[in-house]
Design a protein that fits this description.
single chain; mainly alpha
Length: about 210
């Protein structure tokens, strides 16, 4: 059966697994942005913590994704639900580019711009909110863009612990030695990653144009 015919026959399951995949990615990225951006801001104010925070997130990136899922399985509360564990693991994996780009974007603001804002009487909070974050927004978004693409790919591994998503087709295809079933999971995941990269790339370019 050709791949597109397979999609047509199993469209209900395809829709279910695609929505599960989107759910895992979406919730993970919300957590990553909510934690990664504040962490990056904190590092720009406390540079001494840079080695510890970025070092820790770098170490997480070196752990193979399947191994990380396995290591987290015995952890109380997390291991009780596969989707909860998968979201936590995906969030850990995607944290580095968001934290690093937020830090780089804020510290990369030209000192004369920062000095002019302080000279105008802006507080540190106003400086961050009205000057640094807007100027760093395209760099921060580049980190979110990278993290999103990583998360879409790694989320396929979540099926190995029963968290669902398009990885179900991939693992099923591997067990059946059926390339068509593997592609049924791999192709939509690739399209999802490319679409997210394209949309966030357009938004990033819009922000860059708006700053010139």
């Amino acid at each position: 059966m050709p791949l597109f015919a397979f999609f047509a026959v199993d469209k209900r399951q395809m829709l279910t697994l695609t929505l599960e995949h989107l759910g895992l990615v979406g919730i993970s990225m919300l957590i990553v942005v909510a934690t990664g951006v504040p962490l990056g801001i904190l590092l720009s104010r406390r540079p001494g913590w840079k080695g510890v925070v970025l070092g820790s997130t770098n170490v997480i990136q070196t752990v193979p994704s399947l191994a990380l899922f396995g290591l987290l399985l015995p952890v109380p509360w997390l291991g009780a639900r596969a989707d909860r564990l998968a979201i936590f693991a995906l969030s850990l994996y995607a944290l580095l580019p968001v934290v690093r780009n937020t830090y780089v974007g804020i510290t990369g603001v030209d000192p004369p711009v920062r000095e002019a804002a302080v000279g105008m009487g802006l507080t540190q909070w106003q400086l961050l909110w009205h000057v640094e974050l807007p100027l760093a927004s395209h760099v921060i978004l580049a980190g979110i863009r990278t993290a999103t693409v990583i998360t879409v790919g790694v989320a396929t591994i979540a099926a190995a612990i029963g968290a669902g998503g398009l990885g179900e087709f991939i693992f099923r295809g591997l067990a059946m030695v059926d390339n068509r079933v593997i592609l049924a999971g791999a192709v939509p995941a690739a399209v999802m990653a490319l679409s997210a990269d394209l949309l966030l790339g357009l938004l990033q370019r819009t922000l860059v144009r708006g700053q010139h």
